[in-house]
Amino acid sequence: MPDRPRSARILHPAERPLALSVSLFFMNDEQQDDKSQSSAMLWARYSQIAFIIPAAVVMGLLVGKLFDYWFHTHWLFLVGVIIGAIAGFVDLIRTLMRDKSLRTR
Q1: Residue 7 and residue 86: Cα distance in Å, rounded?
Q2: Closest-CA residue to 48 (of 101, 82, 98)
Q3: What is the average per-residue pLDDT within 50-71?
Q4: Using CA atoms, how far apart are residues 65 and 73, in angstroms rounded to an integer?
């Protein structure tokens, strides 16, 4: 078998550069939409909703508690929880609207 130049050689997955492997995880929406999505991909996309809203609320609570500590108050944690809940629902709506617009194409 003739020797191919290194750039034309097919690389084993262990030999691939890390940047090439990682770039597969960070595809933009247009690149992801071109491929038919498997049920596992759809499950992963929609299961993120179950974690985004509670995570946003917990982050708001922690930031609110931090502000309570800094400013010596006892009510800013409620503001953080409310802002976190709003951020979680905004992300939920954005995810659903993006998926709805992808289905209508």
Answers
A1: 50
A2: 98
A3: 95
A4: 9
Domain ranges of the chain: 39-105
Position with higher pLDDT, 15 vs 92: 92
Q: What integer is the mean pLDDT of 22-39?
A: 56
Q: How far apart are CA 12 and CA 78, in angstroms?
A: 53
* DSSP notation for 4-69: PPGGGSPPPTTTS-HHHHHHTTT--HHHHHHSPPPHHHHHHHHHHHHHHHHHHHHHHHHHHHHHHH
CB 63 within 8 A of CB 81: no
Query: In the prediction, which pLDDT does 70 show?
Result: 96
CA distance 100 to 63: 33
Higher pLDDT, 103 or 85: 85
The number of C-alpha atoms within 13 Å of 5 and in the hemisphere containing its C-beta is 2
What's the CA gap between 55 and 64, in Å, rounded? Answer: 14
